[in-house]
């Protein structure tokens, strides 16, 4: 606590940027005395007393906006990476507070390194619950006096004690993408440059890449070739009529049980720089695309990214794709073809990017693939999805 540390996590929710009051200047309403440089710490703080020795004002102050200092403020929520998670534990979440040049440096789905300090903040959502005053009101029903003054044990708001409940947060001062790999890092030595030049002239380059892609899975060269081409991707185009043609490739692996379909998906999710693995049976439309949730502190509606948004510019691996509810499958039509997600809910209208390749795995209807029937009659999927 209070030490400079570094944490790594995946951004799952971002909040809009808004100005935060850091240093305030107040004017006394009684004598017009200026009280400058009143420090603000995550709450609106007024001067304890007017600086004028003649004036004893302690309550009536007006904020001077022109002489106060504001900074950009943004909060994001990160989640632990699955690779660093201990066995038997669920991923924990932590709020990251960013100011000044650190804002808008992290997008939903990014894996970032945050450098800063752990701090504690008062839990505003717990202190603003409507049941606090109701409990004290029930105790005062039998007394002659009215109001909170007749009660010995009162609620938090009546006592003015608002700092009994705290939660952890992380105040970040620097943000960098995690595991960022560029061309200069790969070619930092002459031996690596010569090795890459040798690979470029190899006639069996594609076969060697396919063999090294999944070394623990024997055979299935066609599936390996398709996944390799999906990882490289195509070239997005924009026609003269302003129509955007996607360059990402979507793949669905259909086969009998115990044929390493899930292993393909899990290994792609592990070594791909930006990938999300999910199960279709336990996923909903909001979990795959995006959900609108209510912030506990500000009571504003914000967008929480789903699996397709988290895998933007990456791969979204969906296992048991045929077990999905047909209503949930309809939600990913736009993401697969238009590469966008449109949301109109709770006063929020937004179009979000979902430029991801979908790698799905499905089982045949009867458990085994019937070669005498067509693909449409072997898989429980709708015609638009296929």
Provide a compact summary of the structure:
The protein has 386 residues and is an alpha+beta fold.
* Average pLDDT, all residues: 77
CATH architecture of the largest domain: 3-Layer(aba) Sandwich
The CATH first-level class of the largest domain comes to Alpha Beta
Q: How far apart lie the N and C ends?
A: 53 Å
Rounded to the nearest angstrom, the radius of gyration is 28 Å
Main sheet makeup: 5 strands, mixed, barrel
- How many alpha or pi helices? 13
CATH superfamily of the largest domain: P-loop containing nucleotide triphosphate hydrolases
- Assembly state (oligomeric): single chain
| Strand elements, count | 18
* Helix proportion range: 10-25%
The shape is elongated
Per DSSP, what share of the residues sits in E-state strands of 2 or more residues?
25-35%
Q: Quickly give the structural class.
A: alpha+beta
Description:
The protein is α+β, with helices and mostly antiparallel strands and 386 residues long. The protein has 3 domains: 5-123 and 165-177, OB fold (Dihydrolipoamide Acetyltransferase, E2P); 181-213, no CATH class; 217-378, P-loop containing nucleotide triphosphate hydrolases (Rossmann fold), CATH 3.40.50. The model is unreliable at 127-162 (pLDDT under 50). It contains 13 helices and 18 strands.
